[in-house]
Structures are given as C-alpha cells and as structure tokens.
Amino acid sequence: MVQRENTYDLKDLLQKLIKAYRWGGKMDEMKVRDSWGIVVGQMIERHTESVVLRNKILYVKLDSPALRNELMMARSKIAKSINKEVGKNALDDIVFR
Predict the structure, then answer these.
(1) Which domains does the chain possess?
(2) If we measure between CA atoms, which residue out of 56, 63, 64 comes closest to residue 28?
(3) What is the DSSP string of 26-44?
(4) Radius of gyration, CA atoms only, the chain
(5) Among 5, 17, 26, 53, which one is most buried in terms of CB atoms within 10 A?
(6) What is the tens place of the pLDDT at every residue in 3-17?
(7) Residues facing residue 82 across a β-bridge
(8) Is the pTM of this model over 0.85?
(9) CA–CA gap between residue 62 and residue 53 (Å, rounded)
(10) In Å, what is the CA distance from 67 to each residue of 17, 28, 53, 58, 70?
C-alpha cells in the first residue's frame, strides 16, 4: 500500500480556506446571531426583527420600545454573555433600534 506524503488535517485546511477567502467576519456574525437567541431567550428573540454585526457592534432591531429600554440597561451583560457563548471577543457594544 502506498502512503501519501501530502496528508493534511481537515481542521487546518478549513482554517486556511476561511482565511484565504476572508470569511472570518461572516462566520463571527453567524455565531453571534445564533448566540443572540440562546443568551436572551425565546421571548425576546420573538420580538427581535433583525440582528446585524458590523465592526464589532451588534445592531438589534426590536418591535417593542419597552423591551428596547429594558435591554439597554443590560447591554454590557448581554454583550459579555454573547462573547462567552461565541468563545471570543466578537463584539464590543450593542445598539438597540
């Protein structure tokens, strides 16, 4: 049986591919969007219209002004929880609209 000399670890190949095509930012955005529902819960997620990550700032559009005011008070705690869920410092601030 012939053993190949050029064997690569799949994890390393995927990381190189993500880096070469600059998909890292989009991957972070997807992780943050998925973490939003986990961190804030199902009730708040139902009132969320959109979640967008740009330049390490998470923009969240809500359909309830009262809920927006409540979340403004806890935005630093929510940001820390999302970063913990994602596994890295993916966002610095949250803006509620």
Answers:
(1) 10-96 (3.30.300)
(2) 56
(3) HHHHHHHHHHHHHHH-HHH
(4) 18
(5) 53
(6) 667 788 898 888 888
(7) none
(8) no
(9) 15
(10) 40, 26, 20, 17, 5
